[in-house]
Structure formats: structure tokens, C-alpha cells
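In the previous chapter we treated chains in isolation. Here, by contrast, the input contains two separate entities that must be folded as one system, with a combined length of 352 residues.
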Amino acid sequence: MSDADTLSHSLPAASAVEEEPSHPAYRHQFDDMAQQFEASHLGMWVFLITEIMFFGGLFGGYTIYRSLYHEAFADTSQYMNIVLGAFNTSVLIASSLTMALAVHAAQTGLQKPLVRFLLATMALGSVFLVIKYFEYSEKFHHHHFPGPNFHYEGPWARQAEILFSFYFVMTGMHALHMVVGIGLLSYLVWKASKRVFDATYYTPVEMIGLYWHFVDIVWIFLFPLLYLIGPHHMGGHS
Amino acid sequence: MKHHVVPRKHYYLVFLALLCLTGTTVAANFVDVGGLNLLIALCIAFTKASLVVLIFMNVRFSSPLTKLFVAAGLFWLFTLILLTFSDYVSRGWIPTPQPWQESPNRNVDNPALH
């Protein structure tokens, strides 16, 4: 913290001419605040790429089983609640908007809108999780959770169990990321209420924003792949 | 520290576009066009994801190095799915050695052989 200020005097003269980094968040190993931001930005993207590969493995496994048991996967879509799924998609898109507006407020140094938009993002994320809870309890109620109590009408019981395994793992991992995101946002609200962020330093807001948008993108793919598998005319035999 | 600050109007427009695309993907699901349904749903999902990445995540105005990293991530994701899928699709194209099978005229149950 304070050693950054003292060490900044020993910076190379070249960088000191361009900009005098006196911000408390400045770390002395960087030339200036812009380079510090760029390093965090690139590091965050590397982390997000590992997340892409993690969810990519799940999407790849899903793709293979869907191509193997196409009729069975399409048959399960009669038990997917499209209304709740579409509503949750809209909730997440709205939360991405408030997150982008929070970053915008931080960039322009607006303290109160920053806190308000962060709180709105947390609220929308919580709405998503509450709706997800109702969807999960509906699935448990119908014995659609894979395991010894799994029950499924029709000839596709074993294959449908695979689909529901993917459903619970993928939406569960996504929901876990949402919970982590809401925790990170509460950290941001705490920091923002202490007016830590301004137009020259808002790196955590930007990074957690990137994370939040990434979680939104995962859901953008989960929604059509899990809820919109087959055309929704009931009957389930093709 | 200079950053490209995107006007708020852009965010609102992207939000509306994302909502419209969500409505479109739900509506398209109720029209049966066979195998095209999946293609349409994935195209809409990729369009939505591109909007989020380029505008909300601001990759459009990020450094070339960040763009390169994003592109590399997508490249490896497609490699992962393409190689895995090509394995499953191409199984059985080339005959592989099968376990030894008994020939019909070698019947161990035939008492005459004992």
C-alpha cells in the first residue's frame, strides 16, 4: 500500500515524464496506471479462457450424447419450463446491462450510480437464482434428478437420465458461478461505497464485469441447448 | 489513463437487441424446420454472445493483444469440440480388428469332436 508511494520515486525517469502515478492503487512494478490496467485485463481474459475450456468440455460432452440420443433428448424438452427459462435469460441480459452501466459509471467517476448499478446487478442475479431454485424443485418433485429415485415416462428413461445429468451439472456449475459473482459484487459495493474507484482506477469493477458477462454468455448457450431441444408439440414420438 | 468510454446509448441498444434475439430464438423453436432448428438456435446464440463480447465486454476497443487472446480461446474451444466430434462421427469408417470369433464349423458342443 504505502510502500508503493515511497518506491515510486525510484521509477525510471522516462515513465515519470509521461505520467506521475500517484494513485494509491498504483503498484511500483508497472510503468504507469495504463500498463497496470492492461496487465490485469489480459490476466482476466486468460482466466476467462480457462473458464471457456471448462464449460467447453461440458458442451462437447453434451453435443456427443445429443447426437447419439437425439430423439430422447428432444423428448425431454416437454419437461423444460420454457417460460421460466426465457424469463431468466432476460433477467441475466438485464443484469449484464446494469453491470455495463456500473462500469460506465466507474469510468466517468459517478459514485452513487456506480453503487446503485452494482446493487441492481446483484438483485437481478438473485432473481435468477430464486427462479432456478423453483425450476430445480419442480424437477426434484417429478423425480427428474438423476440417481436411484430417477423416474421418466416413456421408452427413453435411460437416455433421458443422461440429459438430466447434463442439465443439472451445467446449470449447477453456472448457478455456482452466479453465486461467486454475487459475492464478488458485494465486495465491489463495499469498496465503491468507500469511494475507492474513480475514472483513473476502476480495475476491479471492469474485471468482475468481464466475469459477470462471461457467466451471462454461458447461459446464452445453455438456454437454447437445454430448453429448446425439440419443437414443442407434445407427444414425444417421432 | 485513457480508456474508450462507450456511450450509454450503445449499451441500451445492445440490451434491446439481446432481448429481441431471445424472443426470436423462443419463437423459432415453435416452428419445425427439422435439423435447421438447431442451426438457427446456435446462430442466434453466437450473435448474442458476439454482442456481449464486443460491446458489453468492450473487446471492440481493447488492445490487439487482448483480441488475440480472445481469438485464441475461441480457436481452442472449436478445436476441442471439432476433434472430439470427428472421433465419434468417424468411428466405424475404417474396419478395425475385431475380437476373435468362432468359425461356424468349429463347434465345441459337437460330441463328435471329442
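Residues 157-193 of chain A form the longest helix (37 residues). Helices of chain A lie at 2-7, 13-18, 33-68, 70-76, 82-107, 111-141, 157-193, 203-227. Compare these points with the single-chain example from earlier in the chapter.
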